[in-house]
Design goal:
The structure is a single chain. By secondary structure, this protein is of the alpha+beta class. It has two domains: 49 residues, no CATH class; 63 residues, no CATH class. It contains one helix and five strands. It has a three-stranded antiparallel sheet, with no helix packed on it. It has a two-stranded antiparallel sheet with strand order 4-5. The chain is elongated, with a radius of gyration of 21 Å.
Length: 124
């Protein structure tokens, strides 16, 4: 039996991470879960996506080195950070956004920031 409206397609395929989840259970070891998908870009401009896997990284060893890569090319930049430094960056982002939401600080770079530039203002 023939498939209905079967046709040959041309395109390009690659993998990407479409979701990253951090489980930060109090008293436990944080776990980073990375969801990977395959994207197929068809010649007519449409994209098809399908999940292909999940990677899990327990964050018990904060000295674990991470090779930094250029997001545009995937090539190593020559720099590294530790898992602990990456965790501190994500923690700082979360806390900063919560403080902005709660009105405790202004968003960095906001023009009405009395200290100017990227300096957040902490209101006491």
């Amino acid at each position: 039996m023939a498939d209905y409206q079967e046709s040959q397609v041309a395109g390009t395929s690659w993998h990407r991470f479409n979701q990253i989840h951090i489980d930060n259970t109090r008293g436990g070891v944080p776990v980073v879960t990375m969801h990977e998908e395959r994207v197929v870009a068809l010649a007519d401009g449409r994209e098809l996506r399908e999940p292909v896997g999940v990677l899990e990284l327990p964050c018990g060893d904060l000295s674990y080195p991470i090779t930094l890569r250029d997001p545009a090319s995937g090539e190593p930049t020559g720099a590294t950070v530790t898992l602990g430094e990456a965790y501190a960056i994500v923690y700082s982002l979360c806390l900063q956004e919560a403080l902005i939401r709660d009105g405790a600080i202004l968003r960095p770079g906001v023009s009405d920031n009395p200290l100017g530039g990227d300096t957040p203002v902490i209101e006491e």
